[in-house]
Design a protein that fits this description.
This protein has helices at 24-27, 39-46, 67-75, 97-107, 124-129, 136-148, 166-177, 199-205, 214-230, 244-249, 259-275, 289-306, 310-315; strands spanning 4-9, 53-58, 85-90, 112-118, 153-159, 186-191, 194-195, 234-238, 250-252, 281-284, 317-320. By secondary structure, it is an alpha/beta fold. A 7-stranded parallel beta sheet has the order 1-2-3-4-5-6-8. A two-stranded antiparallel ribbon has the order 7-9. It is globular, with a radius of gyration of 21 Å. The chain binds iron/sulfur cluster.
Amino acid sequence: MDRKRIAFFIPGRGCGRRCVYCDQFAITRDGGGGRPLTPEAVRNILSGCHDPVELCFFGGSFARAGRESFVEFLESIWSAPPGSSITFSSYPGDFNGQYGGETARILKNYPIGTIELGIPSLDPDVLRKCGRDDDPDDALGILAMLRDMDFNLGVQVMIGLPSQSRESSRGDLNRIASVMGGRVWDFRLYPCLVLKGTELEAMYGRGEYRPLELEDAVRTGGRLLLEAESLGFNVIRVGLLDSRSLRESVVSGPYHPAFGELALSEKTALSMSVEHPSGPWQIDARHISRMTGHGGRGIKRLSELTGLPASETAALLQVVRGGNQ
Ligand code: SF4
């Protein structure tokens, strides 16, 4: 059932320290001026709902925000109509050890929609340079533990991080998929951007970090999306939500307001070229913009991949309803 999503942003809450690339205030459009969210404010909004909703907490490390406050936010779901659920993003380490196990057991008392874990990388060198303290094996163990507790899971993965390569990203994806155990997990992909005021900006200024170019990020992202889908992930988001505060905050990196559409166009062109190297290709009417949008990027890319002229490539595209692409 499609339910209305009510998203609350808790920028940086529970994070303790900041990952070098992160400025949740810019990303979540808070701008830093908003007052901290309270459970009472959440309850007030939920009690005005008439149909079941998906209550979402994003932008921080929800499960690390202090036990009392964590439980109080969870309790707010009882103010929403029956059938509502809670989805949130968290740091994998929030579920580490005895305290983390207890956190997971508390969650079983509530209608949890999806637990999304930020797993930008599983490469120890990348994680260290990003200022994160995740242990890659622990992160995989936590995914397996939450899977065995029957939680629906999602992973938030990044590309273009310091010292990250295409190969390490692909390796990470396969390692995560190896613990899915036949489940379908949600998948979000974000390109790393250099944002004002972050440690990454300082690293960029010192010449210690070089962001991906836009086209490189689109190609890397498109290939990763294709692989993620073939491994059974459900892609739900590609690229950050565009906003004025994000635009004003970007210093460098593969920023584009429609990054997701570009990466999906790359994924579609790649998939078509592999499945039918000389066409014809079917594309669902809902997704035709992946081929024709942005100056026909998808068609040009498919033409480049197949070696066919762009006009012939366009002529071999068949728009259908209910297609795979
Ligand atoms: S854990 Fe997530 S929200 Fe917190 S600083 Fe790192 S990237 Fe940002």
